[in-house]
Structures are given as C-alpha cells and as structure tokens.
Amino acid sequence: MKKIVIVGGGAGGLELATKLGNKLGRKGKALITLVDKNRTHLWKPLLHEVAAGSLDHGIDSLSYRAHAKNHFFNFKLAALSDIDRDNKIIKLDKLIDTDGTEILPESELSYDILVMALGSVSNDFNTKGVSDNCIFLDSPQQAKKFHHLMLNKYLQLGVKETNQVSVAIVGAGATGVELSAELYNSLEQVSSYGFEHIDTTDLKVSLVEAGEKILPALPERISGQAHQELLKLGVDVRTKTMVTEATDKGLMTKSGELIEADLIVWAAGIKAPNFLKEIAGLETNRINQLVVKATLQTTLDDTIYAIGDCASCALPNGGFVPPRAQSAHQMASLVAKNIIATLKDKPVTNYKYTDYGSLVSLSNYSTVGSLMGNLTKGSMKVEGRVARLVYVSLYRMHQVALHGYVKTTLMTIVERINRVLRPRLKLH
Ligand SMILES: Cc1cc2nc3c(=O)[nH]c(=O)nc-3n(C[C@H](O)[C@H](O)[C@H](O)COP(=O)(O)OP(=O)(O)OC[C@H]3O[C@@H](n4cnc5c(N)ncnc54)[C@H](O)[C@@H]3O)c2cc1C
C-alpha cells in the first residue's frame, strides 16, 4: 500500500489529510500519516483573537489524534528535521516535554509521496533586538504568552507607577491591523470583569509600518477606511516608519525616535522555517520557501509536494501565490486530486489560484475589504454586516473541509451557547 506522509497539520495540511483519509484511507487504498509538532490544531488566522483573549485556545482547538481516528489517517506527534530523498525517509526530532525531558528519541518515517505543509514563521529581517524583545504570533503558545503578559499589565495599572499599558505592533498587514482593533475590544470586555478602573484611555497601541499605507496589499480606499477606523479607536498609526532596533524600552526608528512600549508584537512579514533553506537539496527561494511547479510538486522531486505558506508558486502573469489561508485551502484540494490521480496512473493537473478577495476584521467595530467576483469583473468593496458574514464564512469553510456541514452547524450552535454560558473574554 502506498504511503502518503503530510508534514504540518495547519490550514492546508490538515484539510489535505482529512480529504485523503476520507477518500483513500477509509477504503484501505493508501496509508496516510499526518506529522505535526503540536498535539492540537487551531486555525492560524484566529491567533490574534487568542492574543487579545477573545478566543480560548483550549476550547477552540482540535485534537489531531481524535480527528485522525474519525477520518481514517494516522497522526504522529513530532517535528520534521530532515529528508533523505534517496531512501524516501523523513527524519523526526526527539520529542521533548515542556520541562526538557525526552519523551521519545529521534525517529524516521518512510514515504512514497511526501507533502510539505509546514507553514511560515515571522520574518524579523535580522533587525537588531527583535528576537529578544518582541513576541511573534506564530503559534497558539506565543499568542497565549502575549495574552498572559497583557493581563499582568492590566493588574499593574494604577499600581507600581503604571498609568498606561503600551503595545507596539510592527507591521500593518492584516495581522497587525486586526490585533490593534481586537486589543481595544478586549479592553472594553476586561473592564467589566473586576477591572472597573480601566478604560480605553489606559491602552496605547502604536501600529508601525514601513510602507506608505496600512494594509499594503489592499486597494487604497479600503486601507484608508481601515486607517480611519483605527484612529477612531485611539490607535497611533505610524506609516513610513522604519524600525531599526527593538529594545526592552520599545522600538527605535530610522529617524532616531523611540516608540515606547511595554509589549512589542512583530508581525512584519513571513518566511518559511530556516531549516528548509538547505533541506535535501530541494530548490528554495530567499525566504526559505520550497519552489514548486504549477502542479505543486517541488521543482527537483515529483514525489514531494509543497503547499501553503512554505511553498513558492509562481502565478502565470507574474508574482506569486500569496501566503494566505485561502491559498492553503485551494492548494490542499488540488494536491488531493493530484495524489489520487497519481495512484490511478493518471496525469496530474496544474494549480490555478483564485483570489476571492481580502477581508480585514476590526473586531466588533467593523469589517472592511474587497471581494473578487465574476459579476463585478474585478474587486467589489464590502463592509459592515455583509463583510463580517463573509469573513466568518472563511473559517466556516475550513471547518466544513474538516468536519462536514452537519458537524460544523452543530459546532456553530455550541459556539452561540458558549457565548451565553462563558465569559466573553479569557481571563486567565
Ligand atoms: C494572526 C494571523 C491572522 C491571519 N489572518 C488571515 C486571514 O484573515 N486570511 C487569510 O487568508 N490568511 C490569514 N493569515 C495567514 C494564514 O494563517 C496562513 O496563510 C495559513 O495558515 C497558512 O497555512 P499553512 O497550512 O501553510 O500553514 P499553517 O496553518 O501555519 O500550519 C503549519 C503547520 O505546520 C506545523 N509545523 C511547523 N513546523 C513543523 C515541523 N518542523 N514539523 C512538524 N510540523 C510542523 C505547525 O505546527 C502547523 O500546524 C493570518 C495569519 C496570522 C498569523
């Protein structure tokens, strides 16, 4: 039986494992194994909500092991460290517990087809002091750490000469913009849980962007609108501001200014994990992404596919497929088809990226963005309730891909019930 190994159970990899498990694993036509370094999955675009405390990672994440059982694939808890292409084996790191003790030694797993779906990490562009003084939103653990530190700062308000909590966010892409708004929303919630002395004037968020405008990938009118919304909330939006160093006091800018901050979040671009740069002699680009052909097979090895943020896939008219959840979702569907075709000795097909537009949620305050459609023959500006509905439906699409329509509907109902039963904010 052919062995299909998928490394990385995120927006793309988990959908792919689920599809292949249901189509091939169920009938014993292939042995599918998903490898991830974490025990649970949380859809990455929700991380800014975990950071702000509006989402409880413990409740909203999914157990890989339970999901694997329900969808006829195996799950292996381990981190990939290398690939031996000659022997078609992947190498897995030792499994280390949180206290540093070794749970399992290094191991290996053989494959006939390998799919790399490891995602990305924040790119600090080697800026001085960033790794020591900034928090990245690359994983639920990091988002939870930020939330914990934020709650500590609220506890200190009014005590220990702390009169204001200041947060600097570097990078005004969707992550930075959404987090800025979410922090004000969570502060409003916090004040109703025993922090009555706190109001929104106690929080200062500085959003720092090197480019001309916030949300650089979106049309001018949408970024302009989001900019105005952030100003209304009280966010100090700094465009054309280049950060040269991060220190324990805040951010130093190219013009020599210090933007003071108690906490700094770095969200200024992505790269694939560093160890991919030289992995198994495969072709990579300057941000460590594996270069793939239009079929999503890596350029030097047809038995290895790459999808999502760790893949560099050229668009026919120039540019590259953007590192977004919708790209990972679409790539997972194509690779599922191509793997099934290969097993039937049929030809593989090319990936065609479809841009459905971009939406940015300014927490409960507003949602803005543009949708691409055949009807409009281009992009159509959307905002308010319609935009919010479409924004939420992106996550629902991911849930439907994992659980099907019936279970997703039930989960939506449970979420509504939880909104009544549980606090609106994670308070610990
Ligand atoms: C705060 C935030 C908000 C975002 N908002 C949006 C949005 O609104 N819309 C949108 O389209 N995109 C958004 N994105 C981008 C989106 O999350 C990514 O493009 C998408 O998750 C990429 O999917 P992926 O499958 O490539 O990787 P991921 O979803 O990141 O999954 C990668 C998986 O690989 C695992 N892994 C990593 N290294 C190893 C290893 N060595 N061994 C084993 N497993 C490993 C990880 O544990 C993880 O489970 C956002 C990102 C962030 C951080």
CATH fold field value of the largest domain: FAD/NAD(P)-binding domain
Q: Number of helical runs?
A: 10
**Major sheet attributes:** 6 strands, mixed
Q: Quickly count the domains.
A: 3
Strand tally: 28
| Rg computed from alpha carbons, rounded to a whole number of angstroms | 22 Å
**What sort of overall outline do the alpha carbons produce when their principal axes are compared?**
globular
Ligand names = flavin-adenine dinucleotide
List the uncertain runs.
none
CATH class of the largest domain: Alpha Beta
Strands of the largest sheet, in order across it? 5-2-1-11-24-23
Q: Helix- and strand-based class? A: alpha/beta
Features:
globular, FAD/NAD(P)-binding domain, 3 domains, alpha/beta, 428 residues, 6-stranded mixed beta sheet, 5-stranded parallel beta sheet, binds flavin-adenine dinucleotide, 10 helices, 32% helix
Brief account:
This protein is α/β, with parallel strands linked by helices. It has helices at 13-25, 47-52, 57-60, 64-70, 130-133, 140-156, 174-190, 220-233, 325-343, 384-421; strands spanning 2-7, 30-36, 40-41, 62-63, 74-77, 80-84, 89-92, 95-96, 102-104, 107-110, 113-116, 121-122, 135-136, 165-170, 203-208, 236-238, 243-246, 250-253, 258-260, 263-266, 270-271, 290-292, 297-298, 301-306, 311-313, 357-362, 366-373, 378-383. Residues 7-13, 35-38, 41, 44-45, 47-48, 79-80, 117-119, 137, 174-175, 273, 308-310, 323-326, 328 line the site of flavin-adenine dinucleotide.
